[in-house]
Amino acid sequence: MKRLQRKNVVLFDHDGTVVDSETIALKSAWQLTNEVAREFPGARCYDLENFVKNFAGKPYREILKNIYAGSPTTLNDRDIDRLVAEEENRAIERLSVEAKPTEGTLQMLSCLRDTGVEYALVSNSSLRRLNACLSAAGLTEYFPSELVFSANDSLPVRRPKPLPDIYLYASECLEADVLDCIAVEDSLSGIKAAVAAGIGQIVGYIGGTHISNDERKSRADALVSAGAQRVIDRMYELSELLSIDLLHQV
Length: 250
Hints:
44% of the residues lie in helices and 10% in strands. It is of the alpha/beta class. Strands 3-2-1-4-5-6 form a six-stranded parallel β-sheet, with helices on both faces. The chain starts with 8 loop residues before the first strand and ends in a 9-residue tail after the last helix. The N terminus is likely disordered.
């Protein structure tokens, strides 16, 4: 018996993919990190450009571990928790004003909704941060609460990408087979999480402003090496993958 055609479910990453938030948040995190380095000497120092290149897509808890790797200075759990909370508060303050959708995302989401293609948001960020970004970017109507999955808040235990848990959880909640899902990710950790979850199609996205024109080729190669089967720099390219005539939908 011929297998019935099943609908694809598009699982979008948030930061740097649906919302062009990475540059805003990373600049805020970089400024805080400079303050941290003065409070706790021994941190590895980065200028803003290299901070963005090295830490895009990484939680601030991981950033703190990286900048003190190999240093005699260690941060205790209490200090780390305090600084992670401070980073999120500062980022949200800026993102709630400055966050915007990535180029073409609004049109792509409208097209998916109008054509009945299922989609959701799968992110490491907290629900508080996601809600602030989606509101500022004018995307709340496309992502009601039941379509927003946070590795920080939605799981019983916080297990961020590159662990696969949030992808597995989202697909289960959406009653979708992971093989029928399409992941759209801008970061290596996101691609690795999708690979580990067994997502059927994995798309790397390099259209965010945190990726410079000079860096796009090397970033695309890195995403492919991590497991992306295709890399796009404009959201409308998803329409080809989904066999949607975007021109006549929006």
